[in-house]
Write a structure and sequence with these properties.
By secondary structure, the chain is α/β, with parallel strands linked by helices. It is built from nine helices and twelve strands.
C-alpha cells in the first residue's frame, strides 16, 4: 500500500443465506470512519448458492469481489479460498474474517484496529460476540480450559478463538500463513490461533462486545440418542459434524499429542454409539 491509511481485506464465505449475507454487508459498509480512517475490500466466496445470494450482493455492493465456489468448500475451505484471493491481489495491512451470520456493531472495526495498535500488531484480535436477545457471550475467545472470556474493558489473553469476527495483521499473516485448507468446515479457526501462538504471537479479545450472533441451539445430530445409529455416524463424518474424526485427530495430534488424539478418537465414536453417556 502506498498511503498511511490501513487497508483491510474482509474475508467471507457464504451459502444460501442471502438475507443474512446482505445484512452482514450492510453492517460492514456502515462502519464508523470507513474510507477516512481505513479502507476495506471484501472478498466473498459464494459456494454455489441457489437462492440468489451472488446476484443480490452484486446488485447492492458492486465493489465486493465474488469468488465462485464448487459447492463443497464449507466454512474453512471457503475462507481459505477468499483469503488466498486477497493475498494474490494485494499485500493488505490487515485481514478481517467475518461470518455472514454475525451483525457487527458500528464501531467494530475501529475497536479491533485500536486493539491491534495496542499490541503493536503482534496479536490476533478476536471479536467478542454476544446474543442480541440477552447480551450474553456466544462466540469469541476462550482460555485453555475452555472458559469463555467475557470483555471487561481491557485486553485479555485468549488461547482459542471462534472465527466469527477476527482481525489478523500483515505481520502475523506473513509469518503464520493463512487458514489451513486441510479442514473443510470446523477446526480451522482453532488451528490458526494455536499456530500463531506457536510462532510467538498472542491472541487477545476485544475490550467490548463488537457484534451479535445467536449461539447454535443444538449439538450435532450424532450427539442425540433419538437419532438412528446410521444417521449418527453419517452426521459425525459429515463436514458439518464439527468433530470429524479424521480431521480432529490430525488437529489434536499436532497440538496436544498422540495420547490425547487417540483418546478422543475413541471417545467420539463411543459417544456416537452410546450418546446417553454424555448427558
Amino acid at each position: 500500500m502506498t498511503d498511511n491509511t490501513p487497508h483491510i481485506a474482509v474475508i467471507m464465505t457464504c451459502f444460501n443465506r442471502r438475507d443474512k449475507t446482505v445484512q452482514c454487508l450492510k453492517n460492514l459498509f456502515c462502519q464508523e470512519e470507513m474510507n477516512t480512517g481505513y479502507a476495506v475490500k471484501v472478498f466473498l466466496v459464494d459456494d454455489a448458492s441457489t437462492d440468489g445470494t451472488p446476484e443480490a450482493v452484486s446488485a447492492l455492493f458492486p465493489g465486493v469481489q465474488i469468488i465462485k465456489g464448487n459447492g463443497h468448500l464449507y466454512w474453512n475451505r471457503g475462507m481459505h479460498t477468499a483469503w488466498e484471493a486477497a493475498k494474490n491481489e494485494c499485500d493488505f495491512d490487515y485481514y478481517l474474517w467475518l461470518n455472514d451470520d454475525t451483525d457487527i456493531k458500528i464501531n467494530a472495526i475501529i475497536e479491533m484496529l485500536e486493539c491491534a495498535a495496542a499490541t503493536k500488531n503482534n496479536a490476533i484480535i478476536c471479536g467478542a460476540i454476544c446474543s442480541r436477545l440477552n447480551q450474553t457471550f456466544t462466540y469469541g475467545g476462550r482460555k485453555a480450559n475452555g472458559e469463555e472470556i467475557h470483555p471487561d474493558g481491557a485486553l485479555q489473553e485468549c488461547y482459542t478463538i471462534n472465527g466469527n469476527c477476527v482481525l489478523v495483521s500483515k505481520l502475523i499473516c506473513d509469518s503464520t500463513g493463512i487458514l489451513d485448507p486441510l479442514y473443510p468446515h470446523a477446526i480451522g479457526d482453532y488451528e490458526y490461533g494455536l499456530r500463531a501462538i506457536k510462532k510467538g504471537f498472542r491472541i487477545v479479545t476485544t475490550r467490548q462486545y463488537i457484534g451479535y450472533c445467536e449461539r447454535n441451539a443444538k449439538l450435532p445430530a450424532w450427539c442425540y440418542s433419538n437419532v438412528p445409529l446410521k444417521e449418527r455416524f453419517e452426521a459425525l463424518y459429515s463436514p458439518l459434524g464439527n468433530s470429524h474424526p479424521y480431521y480432529f485427530f490430525i488437529f489434536e495430534r499436532k497440538y496436544y499429542g498422540w495420547l490425547t488424539a487417540i483418546k478422543h478418537y475413541f471417545t467420539i465414536h463411543l459417544r456416537v454409539l452410546i450418546p446417553a453417556l454424555w448427558k
